[in-house]
Write a structure and sequence with these properties.
Layout: H1 10-32, H2 39-50, H3 99-105, H4 108-115, H5 145-153, E1 160-161, E2 168-169, E3 180-184, H6 188-193, H7 201-208, E4 214-218, H8 219-225, H9 238-254, H10 261-271, H11 286-292, E5 313-314, E6 344-346, E7 363-364
Helix pairs in contact: 4-9
Amino acid sequence: MKLFDLPLSPNLAKLLIVISVAGCSTANTGINQGEISGPEVNEREELVEGKPEITQNENTLGDLSSVQEPEKILEGTDDIEQQEITPTPGPSPTPTVEPAEQATLENTLLTQLGSLRIEPEYEATPYDRSEFPHWDDEDGDGMNTRLEILSLEKVGNVGWYSRWDGEWYAGEGGLSAPRFDIDHIVSLKEAWRSGADEWSTSDKDTFADDMLNLTAVTASSNRSKGAKDASEWLPSEASGKCYLLIRVIQVKTKWSLSIDQDEYTALKELTESCGPDIPDIPSPPPDLSSSASTPTPTASPAQPSSGYGSQFYQTADGSDIDIYDANGNGDINCGELPSAAKPVLVISPGSDPYRLDGDGDGFGCEG
């Protein structure tokens, strides 16, 4: 027999209705409060527990300006990680030049020129060429300084090139070159006026034979130059100007000689067009090169100087001039000398017992 089959009093019926309605309300309230269990509830709890907690600073709650804006994503970009953003290149840094490298880049000639003492030329005492004895045999090999320069500057078996005027000269065999002079690039007189007048006898002797200051050139160009400096005379050959520039600066630097203002200006102008290296000698002309293939007689071997004439003269090949006194009369003329011995240097101009230096320029038998 079921309960609902029993007759109910009106009051009991109302009570059952109230209990039924209250139960439904309680069930609905439990669902809204999340008090249900089961797989769905557990899954939601796990999601909530895995979400990081966001903590807000109390100050930021009232200051919207402190809230950072989210990063903007470029439009039309699906995957920002795959897009490479190329930075705008800035100016290239200026390379640092080490002091040694900087010195190499500078014009070394101009640096040396600027270190020279600039002052007017002067002569405390009158110039005297005899105070510069030269064409010595410094190393005792039987070759005086003239022959050393001719040997040093001879181009193969071809001959010599005059840097002052660009002329080639084959010579007369061996080291015989009577048409060529050995020029003091900084002349002895120029050196005298630039401070050499105060030197010791030894320094003057050494300077007169300093091979840095000597070069073989045509006699005519040597006569044209004379004792002039760079402000008064320059070679006609373009490369010769640069050669002169370099050597003058080197010699005056080495010997602490001064320059005057005009010479400084002339040399400075040359540095703007000349490099720091000695210009190359050009190739000899074909006719000179072909003639060099024919064997030429060599100079006679130098003999020790022991005769009377060796006190006054030095021959081009370093031989003793008295061995050419064919008739034994104690006097020698230019006709008795072989070409290899010419020209003859008069060691002390004015002391010419054989009268070989007709023009008094310090050289005899030049023709």
